[in-house]
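Recap for those who missed Tuesday's class. We walked through two folding examples back to back. For each one, the amino acid string is listed first and its predicted structure tokens come directly after. Nothing is annotated here on purpose, so try labeling regions yourself before you check the end of the notes.
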Amino acid sequence: MKRLSEERAKILFEKLAKFIGPNVKQLIDRPDGTYCFREHRDRVYYVSEKILKLAETFNPNQLVCVGTCFGKFTKSNKLKLHITALTYLAPYAQYKIWVKPSFEQQFLYGNHVPKSGLGRITENTPQYAGTVVYSMSDMPLGFGVAARSTADCKLADPLATVCFHQADIGEYIRSEDTLF
């Protein structure tokens, strides 16, 4: 487990700020201890400093992972958030989109959210903002990017896309062979 380089740390925090804004500080300094981000084989892990100290006693070649995988850096040095980060990012999300019960299944199959599947949207959501997609019963379902601002959603056609799909909890089943 190595520290993120300055360039990769900047990419990570920009990506997190897109979804949770200034609440990134609350991910690091938590009431139950200090947490940090570490990199291992191009994957970014969110781990407690207490557990990190214990993990340093192992040979890095023998270590599979420590902590929660937040994402993976691609070969072009972009960060792709994994769905395992959802439980940590959802409580701090700035912009939220709720989908109707009839559309939850479609979103979990990897489809974008059309206006006809939109239940609610956070006020003043700008276009292309990172959003957390919820069911109407406030269960986080995944990540998305707002295709339209809140004002544009009110005037949009029912078949127009309002949220681009990025990741969802159905990925565990769809890609269980290729996750690790």
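Example two. Treat it independently of the first, because the proteins are unrelated.
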Amino acid sequence: MPLLIRDYTWEETEKMMFITVPLKGVRANKVDLLSSEEFIKVSFPPYLFECLLYAPVDDQTSTAQIGNGAVVFKLKKQEPGMWYQLSKDEIVDKQLIKQKKEEAILKNQERAEQERKDKAEKKRASEKYTVNEMMKIEDDERERINNIKEYERKKATEELERWKEEQREMAEEEKQKILEEKMAEEARKREEERKQKKKKGKNIFEESAEGVPRREVGKIEVKFTKRVFPTAARESQTPQEEEWLQKQADARKALEVEDSDLTEEEKNPLFMRDKANEFFKAGNYQAAVNAYTTALRYSPKMPALYSNRAACHLKLRNFFKTIEDCSKAIDLLHPPVPQNAASRLKALVRKGTAFCQLELYVEGLQDYECALKIDPNNDQLKADAEKIRQIIQSSTGS
């Protein structure tokens, strides 16, 4: 049987009741407390303290502290006033104590259940707030990336328009130069014809008789620009000539990419492609990028060069450049036919991987799904696409 504690002490004020129960040398971690508005219990085997209070107290604001070899209860009275005694009667009915004990246990269970529900509700609210904040951060990041894309697009458009304007000006200057040369050539021919005619009729200016001086001949100098075409201006066909001149100007523009420091082999795009492949296998990805770029200067319509350069950018973590090169390769691989299916598959996977590295999982999943349409039996592609779906679902709280 438990040993009842008799050497407890208590004090009171108008509003508070203080009860001190000694622990008899028992460790604090073995103490079990139970309290309600009318009943308190302290159990630390083999000792037991039970008390049916004289009047009800506020169980929510009351406290119990364990330490320094005792349990100290600080009980706030529901109604201020002096009790002058701790319990209702000196001799307490055991049946009443049992009833109050059961009520206290039930109330503590209800309180614990309510605290658990409040804690769970608070946790759900915190998780919801966290998810909303993460979605907001992702939206802000997506908007930032879209703004960067829009800025780059506008910048590229402006540079393209500026380049077109420069090309138009250069073409106009070239056309004017050729026209001047045509005029000069026509003037030169007219001058030669005039000299020939003058040579044939020269005897009219020679002396006709002895002592009669020769007639003075005047000379007029005329300068003309050189004419490109051998035909006279009156016999030329202007539309065909201008078309030919435009082609010549375009050819001269193409020659602007010539680099005198490059050898003939380095001007061969296939040679540079093979060199770039060797750099890539050796792990020198920046050198491979430079070699692919040189090859593209001489063959800008080869989709494999863009796709391979995208693989190098992916290794170098240049994800935006990877997406740009993959997009160019896919554009050049149209129309989609079985012969270019493998190339389109590589470009789509690299582009999707770059999007996922930028945490743009929705865009990356779209590219992987397009790749699966090309090769629906590819188990690795299926597994990667499923991982991306799981990331998207977890980030949206589904």
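Answers for example two:
The longest helix spans residues 94-200.
The two ends are 57 Å apart (CA to CA).
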